[in-house]
Each structure stands twice: as C-alpha cells, then as structure tokens.
Amino acid sequence: MSATREERIVLHQRNEKWQNPPVRIEMPECINCDACLRACPPQFGAIFNFGTDVVIIPELCSGCDKCLPACPVNCIYPFADWQTTSYPSEWWSEPGSKNDPYL
Ligand code: SF4
Ligand code: SF4
Fold first, then answer.
1. pLDDT in tens, 40-92
2. Which of 43, 74, 91, 93 lies at a C-alpha separation of 20 to 30 Å from 12?
C-alpha cells in the first residue's frame, strides 16, 4: 500500500488509486521560480529543488494539476509514459530529507 506520502517515499510507489498520470517539467523552458513547488499540496509534495533544477518525482505526483496554473511559463506537461528509469534515482535523496519543503 502506498496511500500516504510517507509510504510512497519508502516504497517508491504511486498510490494505485490515482487515475491521472503524473506531470513533468520541461527543464529547458523552466525559469526555476519555485512557484509550482509552493502550489503542490503537501499531502503529495512531489516537487523539489535538485541542484539547480526544479523536478517532479512521478511516484509522488497524483496528477492533480494544481501546479499548472502556478507556472508563469507553462512548462509543466502530462507524463503519461513515465517509468522509474525516466529520471535520475538520485532525486529520491530529497523527499523525507532535512531539505524536504513539505515537512
Ligand atoms: S500535479 Fe499535483 S501532485 Fe503533481 S506536482 Fe503538480 S501539484 Fe503536485
Ligand atoms: S513554476 Fe514553472 S517555471 Fe517555475 S519552477 Fe515550476 S516549472 Fe519551473
């Protein structure tokens, strides 16, 4: 089960009840303003600063789309064909860490 954010962080699993695909940031278009990070509901808490990039971890993203209207350059897109290998596994160093903005 991965019903809570804490469980999703431990198991690296999406909640199987989520119907919508996650979303992703098109990095060359992103201006690193962090507006999306602040708009993501804390129960999902999917967006992180990773080095100089702003990134979304698909397993934590419910596809609620709350971050989309927050983005001033509209560079957040659906990520229907995501896989665990679609992004660097190092991103998982952020959720649950002392730098986690949602804790
Ligand atoms: S779609 Fe929702 S859960 Fe996913 S990153 Fe955006 S605000 Fe967070
Ligand atoms: S709101 Fe848009 S431009 Fe700002 S950090 Fe998020 S994805 Fe990048």
1. 999 999 999 999 999 999 999 999 999 999 999 999 999 999 999 999 999 99
2. 74
The reply to whether ligand 1 has any atom less than 6 angstroms from the CB of 67 is: yes
| Residue 57 CB neighbour total at 10 angstroms | 22
Ranges of each domain in the chain: 5-83
pTM above 0.85, yes or no: yes
Q: Ligand 1 mean position to 23 CA, how many Å?
A: 7
Contact indicator for 38, 96 with CB cutoff of 8 Å? no
Position in ligand 1 atom list of the atom nearest CA 47: 5
